Amino acid sequence: MEGFSLSTATFYLLAGLAVVGAGGVAFSSNIIYSALSLMLSFLGVAGLYVFLNADFVAGIQLLVYVGGVLILTLFAVMLTHQIAEIEVSNRTVGRWPALAIVVGVFAVMYKAVADTTWYEGGVLGTESSTYAIGDALLGEYILPFELASIVLLSVLVGAVVLSRKEVAEEKEGSETR
Questions:
Q1: Number of domains in the chain
Q2: Is residue 115 in a domain?
């Protein structure tokens, strides 16, 4: 095969990792396996970001999604003590129409990729994008950056207040019994 190099193999490996992980999320009936498949998909996407020289975005992908959202989801599922009492059913009514839609979308995407004339650019530079992003965040975008941090802080405080209220209500309910 002409043009099949190590970088091409790496790209297909990372893209396959992301697609297989996404498939595991979509088709797993166990929420723990689904979350682990989501981690696999996130790792594949982070690898693709590294492959594209977007090292800052890859780091944020790992820190925020794998380190934050996914672990928080796993902890929420595993530490919920009342989860055994809840009957969760995974209806399989929509699987065949969903599969037909996925096959149709895949066929359209394959046709678009096969019919496109691709531009092959030169080798990208190896300079890091992290410096430019940090300079922009602490320069011309300092106000939106600080506003986002205030919004996140208020969400965190609101979550603590709501969780403390639920704990207080549970204690009052157990004392009246």
A1: 2
A2: no
Domain that holds residue 25: 1-84
What pTM was computed for the model? 0.61
The pLDDT assigned to 1 comes to 52
Please tell me the distance from the alpha carbon of residue 50 to that of residue 175, in angstroms, as a whole number. Answer: 55
Q: Kindly state whether residues 3 and 77 are assigned to the same domain.
A: yes
Spatial separation of the C-alpha atoms in residues 29 and 138, rounded to whole Å = 44
**121 in a structural domain:** no
Element (H, E) at 17: helix 6-27
Q: How confident is the model at residue 65 (pLDDT cuts 50, 70, 90)?
A: confident
Amino acid identity for residue 143 in this structure: L
Which stretch, 12-16, 72-76, 124-128, has highest mean pLDDT? 12-16
